[in-house]
């Protein structure tokens, strides 16, 4: 075959499956082989926290079940059965989403070995769509982080440069999609955990409108901010997966009753000739310029030029209250974290550590939580406990909720002038693994999410797509589009339009600029074996 | 918005049921101090007339029919328990001295 199966987009793979040119078993096998070739072997068989000498994108591989599902799809197709559009197309699932028959760990020692007795709603929808699940992807512990370094099972590495972070918390899903281990993956986004990893790995990630995808069976981090969304290499693919997992769910009381939108159609219209003509694009003045890496800024401005040349109307918008968004986010998020993580007490499930002697249950809980949680999780629980404590509640949690109103008002005013808003997704390209000393300055890591957080506070949809490589380091830059709540179709339309302009300029997808991942991993592992890093 | 000391963090850790060494308490106190200082401006951002938003989209009184749905069996519910007995979760003494 001239084109490798693993390099096909989900849409193209689905077409080849439908025509019988490729079988689902072939597709699953090819992706499992790619995982085998690039995910590495454990650096220390005794100590999983050290990770692997490869990408370490997967915490669990679901080989047998994925092949079974693929065989079922191939048989059904041979019999001429009507199948869903993505039937037989493999998918990876962030290990924060529960899956029956596979472990779910949230990348925490607290849940090591835990087997969910039920499926999350999005997991069920993947099964109903007959998509083989390749396995569970790595993340920052309980989705808290921007680098996937906080995983209890070692960091995931960036396929563009294995010494770099793949973003976080969904670094595993983004790296898997970027490195052709999977055409599609599910992520979750509380402050940017789908979009920032997409940006730094040169992939596409979407945070849908809050409530448009069910959170039932998604391990809760901050319930008023969390949202499940798609990761892919093309905008159309993200739209197709969004249509599979979206829609009302009575099991999630925050689930919207709106029908699933026609996101794939929006993406196709956006990428058609003249698809961007007349689109009003608002440039968020507070989300670029100072604090953003020069190469990020340069690629961002080039995208604006392309949009203008394609007939979009570029306007400036002001969002003065965004200056408080990061602070408000950290107060709200940590408060909800401290509450949501109270359930890990070593009683009903998860790690139990029993100290010497005849300890009380309280001592067992404290010992279990001390051993089960990593430093970042503890830091956020303590911060949240502080923000919610008597005497501080109004100054912190109460004020942060008021800022949330101000951020929503800023967005409402901006959307009066523009159909979609645009900004770089992240202020920098991928940084070195171990390159940020969080104890010296915990806020430095948090600043990665400066451009993604406002949309979570407002509950609105946003997409990140590849905007090119920063000239100074050759690493991917992400471009973000945002749209009003329930207007997810707009981010697909605008995203697919810009994607077409950029890929025409590049002469193909951005990943063609990258060295072969398998060879990169082989060299990296050889160096690691010699004791280098 | 005063500086956060080790004793305060010790109290918070107790409330949060996380055992921490003296060293850890000192480190977290320093980190928390930096974070709280960075987010302090939040309390100055909004006037009293700005309402609080607890939830990004307005949804009220979400009810469903009161019918029995799918539930876990007792066996499934206990399948991940660190300790169980007679179909129940088993825990150490709840009160001191018993």
UniProtKB/TrEMBL annotation, chain A:
Active-site residues annotated for this sequence: 94 (charge relay system), 169 (charge relay system), 193 (acyl-ester intermediate)
Keyword field contains Mitochondrion: no
Entry-linked Gene3D superfamilies: Amidase signature (AS) domain
A single Gene Ontology CC term: glutamyl-tRNA(Gln) amidotransferase complex
Domain Amidase: 53-491
Domain of life of the organism encoding this protein: Bacteria
GO biological process, one term: translation
Molecular-function GO terms, alphabetical: ATP binding; glutaminyl-tRNA synthase (glutamine-hydrolyzing) activity; transferase activity
This enzyme's EC code(s): 6.3.5.7
Keywords (A to Z) from UniProt: ATP-binding, Ligase, Nucleotide-binding, Protein biosynthesis, Transferase
Coiled coil: none
Catalytic class of the enzyme: ligase
Catalyses which reaction(s): L-glutamyl-tRNA(Gln) + L-glutamine + ATP + H2O = L-glutaminyl-tRNA(Gln) + L-glutamate + ADP + phosphate + H(+)
Family annotation (HAMAP family): GatA
Subunit structure comment from the entry: Heterotrimer of A, B and C subunits.
Protein family per UniProt: Belongs to the amidase family. GatA subfamily.
Physiological role: Allows the formation of correctly charged Gln-tRNA(Gln) through the transamidation of misacylated Glu-tRNA(Gln) in organisms which lack glutaminyl-tRNA synthetase. The reaction takes place in the presence of glutamine and ATP through an activated gamma-phospho-Glu-tRNA(Gln).
Name by which UniProt lists this protein: Glutamyl-tRNA(Gln) amidotransferase subunit A
Annotated organism of origin: Kocuria marina
Gene assigned in the entry: gatA
Automatic annotation (TrEMBL), chain B:
A Pfam family hit: GatC
Catalytic activity: L-aspartyl-tRNA(Asn) + L-glutamine + ATP + H2O = L-asparaginyl-tRNA(Asn) + L-glutamate + ADP + phosphate + 2 H(+); L-glutamyl-tRNA(Gln) + L-glutamine + ATP + H2O = L-glutaminyl-tRNA(Gln) + L-glutamate + ADP + phosphate + H(+)
InterPro entries cross-referenced by the UniProt entry: Asp/Glu-ADT_sf_sub_c, GatC
One GO BP: translation
EC nos: 6.3.5.-
Region (Disordered): 75-98
Broadest EC class assigned to this enzyme: ligase
Molecular function terms from GO: asparaginyl-tRNA synthase (glutamine-hydrolyzing) activity; ATP binding; glutaminyl-tRNA synthase (glutamine-hydrolyzing) activity; transferase activity
Swiss-Prot/TrEMBL keywords: ATP-binding, Ligase, Nucleotide-binding, Protein biosynthesis, Transferase
Assembly information from the UniProt record: Heterotrimer of A, B and C subunits.
Record's function text: Allows the formation of correctly charged Asn-tRNA(Asn) or Gln-tRNA(Gln) through the transamidation of misacylated Asp-tRNA(Asn) or Glu-tRNA(Gln) in organisms which lack either or both of asparaginyl-tRNA or glutaminyl-tRNA synthetases. The reaction takes place in the presence of glutamine and ATP through an activated phospho-Asp-tRNA(Asn) or phospho-Glu-tRNA(Gln).
Family: Belongs to the GatC family.
PANTHER family the UniProt entry points to: GLUTAMYL-TRNA(GLN) AMIDOTRANSFERASE SUBUNIT C, MITOCHONDRIAL
HAMAP family documented for this protein: GatC (MF_00122)
Protein name: Aspartyl/glutamyl-tRNA(Asn/Gln) amidotransferase subunit C
Organism: Kocuria marina
Lineage: Bacteria, Bacillati, Actinomycetota, Actinomycetes, Micrococcales
């Amino acid at each position: 075959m001239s084109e490798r199966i693993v390099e096909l987009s989900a849409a193209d793979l689905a077409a080849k499956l439908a025509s019988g040119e490729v079988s689902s078993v072939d597709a699953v096998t090819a992706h499992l082989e790619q995982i085998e070739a690039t995910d590495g072997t454990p650096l220390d068989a005794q100590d999983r926290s050290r990770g692997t000498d490869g990408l370490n994108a997967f915490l669990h591989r679901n080989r047998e079940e994925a092949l079974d599902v693929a065989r079922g799809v191939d048989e059904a197709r041979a019999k001429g059965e009507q199948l869903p559009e993505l039937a037989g197309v493999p998918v990876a699932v962030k290990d924060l989403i529960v899956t029956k028959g596979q472990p779910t760990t949230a990348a925490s020692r607290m849940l090591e070995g835990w087997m969910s007795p039920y499926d999350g709603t999005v997991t069920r929808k993947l099964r109903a769509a007959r998509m083989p699940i390749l396995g569970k992807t790595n993340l920052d512990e309980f989705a808290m982080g921007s680098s996937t370094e906080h995983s209890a099972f070692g960091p995931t590495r960036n396929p563009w440069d294995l010494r770099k972070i793949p973003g976080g918390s969904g670094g595993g899903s983004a790296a898997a999609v970027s490195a052709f281990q999977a055409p599609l993956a599910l992520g979750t986004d509380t402050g940017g955990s789908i979009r920032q990893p997409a940006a730094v790995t040169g992939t596409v990630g979407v945070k849908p409108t809050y409530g448009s995808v069910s959170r039932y069976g998604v391990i809760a981090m901050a319930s008023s901010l969390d949202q499940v969304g798609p990761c892919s290499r093309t905008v159309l693919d993200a739209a197709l997966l969004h249509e599979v997992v979206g829609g009302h769910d009575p099991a999630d009381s925050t689930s919207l009753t709106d029908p699933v939108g026609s996101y794939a159609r929006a993406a196709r219209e956006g990428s058609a000739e003249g698809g961007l003509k007349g689109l009003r694009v608002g440039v968020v003045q507070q989300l670029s310029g100072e604090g953003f890496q020069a190469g990020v800024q340069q690629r961002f401005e080039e995208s604006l030029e392309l949009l203008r040349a394609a007939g979009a109307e570029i306007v400036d918008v002001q969002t003065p209250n965004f200056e408080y968004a990061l602070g408000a986010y950290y107060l709200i998020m940590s408060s909800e974290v401290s509450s949501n993580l109270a359930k890990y007490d070593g009683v009903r499930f998860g790690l139990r550590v029993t100290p010497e002697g005849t300890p009380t249950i309280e001592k067992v809980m404290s010992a279990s939580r001390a051993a089960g949680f990593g430093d970042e999780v503890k830091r956020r629980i303590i911060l949240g406990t502080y923000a919610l404590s008597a005497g501080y509640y109004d100054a912190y949690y109460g004020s942060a909720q008021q800022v949330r109103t101000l951020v929503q008002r800023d967005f409402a005013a901006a959307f009066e002038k523009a159909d979609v808003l645009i900004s770089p997704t992240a202020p920098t390209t991928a940084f070195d693994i171990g390159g940020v000393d969080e104890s010296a300055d915990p806020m430095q890591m948090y600043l990665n999410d400066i451009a993604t957080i406002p949309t979570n506070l407002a509950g609105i949809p946003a997409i990140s797509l590849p905007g090119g490589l920063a000239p100074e380091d050759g690493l991917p830059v992400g471009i973000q589009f945002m749209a009003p709540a329930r207007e997810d179709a707009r981010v697909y339309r605008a995203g697919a339009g810009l994607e077409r302009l950029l890929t025409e300029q590049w002469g193909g997808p951005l990943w063609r600029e990258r060295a072969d991942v398998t060879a990169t991993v082989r060299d990296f592992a050889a160096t690691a074996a010699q004791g280098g890093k | 918005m005063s500086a956060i000391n080790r004793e305060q963090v010790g109290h918070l850790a107790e409330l949060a049921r996380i055992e921490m060494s003296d060293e850890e308490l000192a480190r977290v106190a320093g980190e928390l101090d930096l974070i709280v200082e960075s987010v302090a401006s939040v309390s100055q951002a909004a006037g009293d007339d700005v309402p609080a938003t607890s939830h990004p989209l307005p949804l009220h009184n979400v009810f469903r029919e009161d019918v029995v749905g799918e539930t876990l069996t007792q066996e499934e519910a206990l399948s991940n328990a660190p300790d169980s007995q007679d179909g129940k979760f088993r825990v150490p003494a709840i009160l001191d001295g018993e």
